[in-house]
Amino acid sequence: MNWQELCEHPGLRNLPFKIELNEKGQIIMSPAKVYHSLYQAELAYLLRSMLKGGKTLTECAVKTRKGTKVADVAWASSNRLERIRHETECSVAPEICIEVISSGNIADEIKEKAALYFENGSEEVWICKADGTVVFYRGDGKSECSALVPNFPKKIDV
After folding, report:
1. CATH number of residue 65's parent domain
2. What does residue 90 show for φ and ψ, rounded to 5 degrees?
3. Which of 10, 15, 23, 77 is the most exposed place for a label (fewest CB within 10 A)?
């Protein structure tokens, strides 16, 4: 199954799960808890408030060599947005991709997703932990803050 087929499948439209595809085209589903949604909304709001010249995206599908991964929150510049706006899944990752850690996430899985986002053009990957702590990464590793949004808080309260 590919991402287009998954998006158009009538039986999968109203599932209460986050859906991704692995490299074999298999569906991976994980349930989202309320705190996950709260962090997503707050991260999106802060990005939208603090960054100009682009748009904030939620549940952003990114095509990778290991299937379609879905960033919980992302930010794309106007230039990048023009390229991806009408795609079913982003052929190039937004400049910022954010993962909100869920209880079902495994550290290696998040590490792999970050590597795939970077491989596909992301400049930064942020990880929001279950306690609201935000950890910033660039292609060369962990960073004290975001280069694109230097004043972004290191902890989110919801």
Report:
1. 3.90.1570.10
2. -65, 125
3. 10
Q: Which one-letter amino acid corresponds to residue 114?
A: A
Nearest by Cα to 74 from 93, 88, 57: 57
Virtual torsion, Cα 9, 71, 80, 43, nearest 10 deg:
130
- 72: containing domain: 32-143
Domain contains 24: no
pLDDT tens digits for range 120-135: 999 999 999 999 999 9
* Alpha carbons 49 and 46: distance in angstroms, whole number: 5
Nearest residue to 105 via CA among 136, 124, 128, 78: 128
Contact criterion met (CB below 8 Å) for 7 and 28: no
- Picking from 109, 112, 71, the residue whose alpha carbon sits closest to that of residue 90 is 71
In the chain, what percentage of residues exceed pLDDT 70?
Answer: 81
pLDDT in tens, 63-88: 999 999 999 999 999 999 999 999 99
CA 94 to chain centre: 9
